[in-house]
């Protein structure tokens, strides 16, 4: 995605309909909104897990699928946030 955007910007790729259509739909606001939703879902998931851990006496916490899901959503939210800014900078006129 980044390589295509940059190649289009400097003129290596003249007509790439997929990238043109995608970048017309993509906006910085959309990327930040998706990032915020992913990050919030991850934080909410991890807060629920943390509360269960505190209520159970703070014993060893086994890694489960919900833990992995929470950290994955958190990481994807952060990554989407920074990637949306990068794509926005590449495509700026």
- Which H/E pattern describes the elements? HHHH
**Quick one: overall form?**
elongated
* Topology, number of strands: 0
- Based on CA atoms alone, the radius of gyration comes out at 19 Å
Q: Indicate the percent of residues in helices.
A: over 70%
Figure out the total of helices. Answer: 4
- How much beta, percentage-wise? under 5%
Largest sheet: none
Q: What class would the helix/strand composition place it in?
A: mainly alpha
Low-confidence residue ranges: none
End-to-end Cα distance, whole Å, is: 18 Å
User: What is the average of the pLDDT values?
Assistant: 84
Fold topology:
Elements: H1 2-10, H2 17-25, H3 28-55, H4 65-91
Structure notes:
The protein is mainly alpha-helical and 93 residues long. It has a domain of 65 residues. Helix content is 78%, strand content 0%. The protein is built from 4 helices and no strands. Helix 1 packs parallel to helix 4 and helix 3 runs antiparallel to helix 4. 9% of the residues are buried.
Keyword list:
93 residues, mainly alpha, 4 helices, elongated
Short description:
The chain is mainly alpha-helical and 93 residues long. The protein has helices spanning 2-10, 17-25, 28-55, 65-91. The protein has a domain at 27-91.
């Amino acid at each position: 995605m980044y390589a295509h955007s940059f190649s289009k910007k400097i003129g290596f790729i003249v007509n790439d309909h997929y990238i043109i259509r995608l970048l017309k739909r993509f906006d910085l606001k959309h990327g930040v909104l998706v990032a915020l939703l992913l990050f919030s879902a991850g934080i909410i998931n991890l807060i629920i897990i943390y509360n269960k851990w505190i209520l159970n006496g703070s014993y060893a916490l086994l890694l489960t699928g919900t833990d992995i899901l929470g950290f994955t959503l958190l990481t994807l939210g952060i990554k989407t946030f920074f990637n949306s800014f990068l794509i926005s900078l590449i495509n700026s006129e």
